[in-house]
UniProtKB/TrEMBL annotation:
TM segment ranges: 20-38, 50-75, 96-122, 142-162, 169-194, 214-232
Pfam family, one: ABC2_membrane_4
Keyword Kinase: no
Superkingdom per UniProt: Bacteria
Designated name of the protein: Multidrug ABC transporter permease
UniProt keyword list: Membrane, Transmembrane, Transmembrane helix
Keyword DNA repair: no
Native source organism of the sequence: Lysinibacillus pakistanensis
Length: 243
């Protein structure tokens, strides 16, 4: 397993994925900060008002798209030059292949989450927000990362089967809007992309109830297990087309 994870990181060397990991959170933070700056007369709740603006664009749109890009990217090399054929005949278990990709993308997204909370802190300082830094935003960031694991599992399942780089990203964009609708319909805890909205408290900073909190963690684990099992089973039993 360690060798598989190391191999996945080696594939990312000299790639431009690091640039994407930094630029997208920066863009979402700038958009949120500009919105906060021009609406300070209405947004008067300090750190929490700033969070509503920056996390809305980041957690609701940019992060799911970034996850889809990362998942498509870590599967891109295998889809080229019949590399799937070589990989599937190597002495590495199918489970190791999928889990290694899941771990690598999870680490990349954890880095992005840490960058985001750092930028959020910096933005609050630049806006001279006088109230103490809300520690609960750190827990929101961690919950958001855990919720992202469900999306990673799903997007990897798509990217493993679809050779196109763009199609899984387009599916992710569509799923974002579906998730938003389900969240508004009070069904968000049963859809992976809506779980991210809950985890980062993007649209509502009110703490989840006890039942919602339990459902949040249980549904995330359920989605991760389901999508991972489906992908591993497909890799074991179905041929993958490679070019």
């Amino acid at each position: 397993m360690k060798r598989s994870i190391y191999a996945e990181f080696l594939k990312l060397r000299h790639s431009r994925i690091g640039f994407v990991l930094v630029v997208l959170p920066l863009i979402s933070m700038l958009i949120g900060c500009l919105n906060f700056y021009f609406n300070q007369g209405v947004l008067t709740n300090g750190w929490y008002s700033l969070w509503t603006q920056v996390s809305l664009f980041y957690g609701e749109f940019f992060l799911p798209i970034l996850i889809a890009i990362c998942c498509a990217y870590v599967c891109r090399l295998e889809h080229l030059n019949r590399n799937w054929n070589m990989l599937m005949t190597s002495p590495v278990s199918v489970s190791s292949v999928f889990i290694a990709k899941l771990v690598v993308v999870s680490i990349l997204i954890l880095f992005v989450q840490m960058l985001f909370i750092g930028l959020y802190l910096l933005a609050g300082i630049l806006f001279t927000i006088s109230e103490p830094f809300p520690v609960e935003t750190i827990s929101m960031t961690i919950r958001g990362w855990f919720a992202s694991l469900s999306i990673i599992s799903l997007q990897l399942a798509l990217s493993l089967r679809i050779r196109s780089f763009a199609i899984p990203i387009g599916i992710s964009l569509c799923a974002v809007f579906i998730g938003l609708g389900l969240y508004i319909a009070k069904l968000g805890l049963f859809f992976p992309y809506s779980l991210l909205t809950f985890g980062m408290s993007v649209l509502n900073q009110v703490e989840m109830t006890g039942i919602q909190n339990i459902l949040f963690w249980v549904m995330n684990m359920t989605f991760i297990v389901i999508f991972a099992s489906m992908s591993i089973n497909q890799l074991k039993n179905k041929d993958i087309k490679s070019s």
